[in-house]
Write a structure and sequence with these properties.
By secondary structure, the chain is an alpha/beta fold. Helix content is 47%, strand content 16%. The protein has two domains: 225 residues, Alpha-Beta Complex (Spore Coat Polysaccharide Biosynthesis Protein SpsA, Chain A), CATH 3.90.550; 73 residues. It binds uridine-5'-diphosphate (UDP) and magnesium ion.
Length: 333
């Protein structure tokens, strides 16, 4: 049974080089959670930070001894694998994800929980006014549009990580073993009753965004290839269309030459070049798309762990499920 009204809340926070944000984030999270008057825990996953994030987090353990847990990953695995590492040990009836950079105000969490308590199993935040660069916003718009079309997964704001999931959905996510994934989309495929709610969005409090254009592109390939084979089908369709066009042109040229008895044309060599480049370009792009899928299949069959937990701090003695289904107890810090 999940979604038991007013059940325990787990908040999972992926942390990568956020030393300047943690001292504000964690107390703000707890003051929101305290005001709810229900059991709660905060799980911060240190995704191989190279700054003092882990020390800063550990420094807070004394203040919240039974409610703060820290998962230390062995290196940087990425935001989504880090969240999965948090999901693996989250014990709540409702699990909330939130960014560590304070772009998602913790004060919005009760809005999500209100809907979760009403039985919505995935509650997605939709950023009202985004405080990101013009470039990021424009890129997101394109991504939202393309992704909805290609994956058929309907979501207003794919990029907002302030979300709440029911225990059932998290259990299903925990059973998935795919190595590269996009959590909001994955959850949406398991959801029976999704809901969305507008949430505030702020500027990044400190530090810089971890997403370069390249990382954003990679994330989008994850989203596209992980949830759809439409890119391959579009490519096949284009192949058919081009071939049909070529056939029609060929027949036309034959008719023109042998039936209408016009001289063969020698001009238009450069037009031919242009067409050839377009078609070659599309072929190469198509090969790239095929390569994306093949590469991902390779990644899956190698079956390397998606993340490696070095250590879990806090809530000592609790049983945790580590990657690979290994059960273990949390070692003493
Ligand atoms: N993050 C992470 N591992 C990474 C990159 C990011 O755990 O490899 C975390 C980061 O600390 C933050 C969240 O994911 O809590 C979102 O990252 P960021 O704010 O850089 O993304 P943006 O808001 O620019 O999309
Ligand atoms: Mg951010």
């Amino acid at each position: 049974m999940s979604g038991a009204p007013r059940g325990k809340v787990s908040v999972v926070v992926p942390v990568y080089n956020e030393e300047a944000n943690i001292p504000e984030l964690v107390p703000r999270l707890f003051s929101v959670l305290d005001s709810l008057d229900r059991p709660c825990e905060v799980i911060c996953v240190d995704d191989g930070s190279r700054d003092r994030s882990l020390e800063v987090l550990r420094g807070l353990l004394d203040r919240y001894p039974d409610r703060l847990r820290i998962v230390e990953l062995s290196r940087n695995f990425g935001q989504h694998p880090a969240i999965l590492a948090g999901f693996a040990i989250a014990g709540g009836d409702v699990i909330v994800t939130i960014d560590a950079d304070l772009q998602n105000p913790p004060e919005e969490i009760p809005k999500l929980l209100a809907l979760a308590d009403q039985g919505f199993d995935v509650v997605g935040g939709v950023r009202e006014v985004r405080h990101d660069s013009f470039f990021r916003r424009a890129a997101s718009r394109v991504v939202n549009r393309v992704t909805t079309t290609i994956t058929g997964i309907r979501m207003t704001d794919y990029g907002c990580m302030l979300r709440a999931y029911s225990r059932e959905v998290i259990d299903l996510i925990n059973r998935c073993e795919e190595s590269s994934t996009f959590i909001p989309a994955l959850a949406q495929t398991f959801s029976r009753r999704p809901a969305e709610v507008a949430v505030r969005h702020a500027e990044r409090r400190a530090g810089a965004s971890k997403y370069s254009l390249y990382r954003l592109l990679r994330l989008n390939f994850d989203l596209m290839t992980g949830f759809s084979v439409v890119p391959l089908q579009i490519f096949t369709l284009f192949g058919f269309l081009t071939a049909s066009g070529g056939l029609v042109l060929g027949i036309y040229l034959l008719v023109r030459r042998f039936i209408l008895l016009r001289a063969s044309e020698a001009d238009g060599v450069f037009t031919l070049f242009a067409l050839a480049f377009v078609v070659m370009g599309v072929l190469m792009a198509g090969l790239g798309i095929v390569g994306e899928y093949v590469g991902r299949i390779y990644q899956e069959v190698r079956g390397r762990p998606r993340y490696l937990v070095r250590r879990v701090y806090g809530a000592t003695g609790a049983v945790i499920r580590l990657e690979g289904g290994v059960e273990g107890t949390v070692p003493r810090p």
